[in-house]
Amino acid sequence: MDALSSRGALEVERVVEDDERCALFVLTGDIDETVAPRLLEQLMESARRSQVDLVIIDLIRVDYCGAAGVKCLEAAHRAAGRHGTELALTRPSQFVRRVLTISGLTHLLAE
After folding, report:
1. Which CATH number fits the domain that encloses residue 37?
2. Which tens digits make up the pLDDT trace of 54-109?
């Protein structure tokens, strides 16, 4: 588990399936301007791995996603695509789902 902010705003648990074809990130807390750049680095690092075909971001425990968080998720999606990797968002809270809807990112939801 990695705490991206000194305030503890976001915790990231990265789980890799046994065959390492899938990287699962379970996020807890807030995705804001203090943590978005580091989160993007972690997501892009997984997407760049040649053996990873799918990056899944579980949002069930994300309480807040600001503009920086939206930009982070969108940039991670574009970067994954450039590396031939699919990126999918799962289980957003009601608030995060609303943010994704307003931002036009619902196409990233794996439902």
Report:
1. 3.30.750.24
2. 999 999 999 999 999 999 999 999 999 999 999 999 999 999 999 999 999 999 99
Neighbour count for residue 27 (Cβ, 10 Å)? 24
pTM (2 decimals)?
Answer: 0.85
Q: State the total domains in the chain.
A: 1
Neighbours of 21 (CB within 10 A): 12
Token pair recorded at residue 44: 């892009």
b (16+ CB within 10 A) / e for 88-97: bbebbeeebb
Residue 18 has pLDDT above 70, yes or no: no
Nearest to 49 by CA among 72, 16, 89, 71: 16
Q: How far apart are CA 18 and CA 71, in angstroms?
A: 30
> Minimal CA–CA distance to 13: which of 62, 69, 51?
62
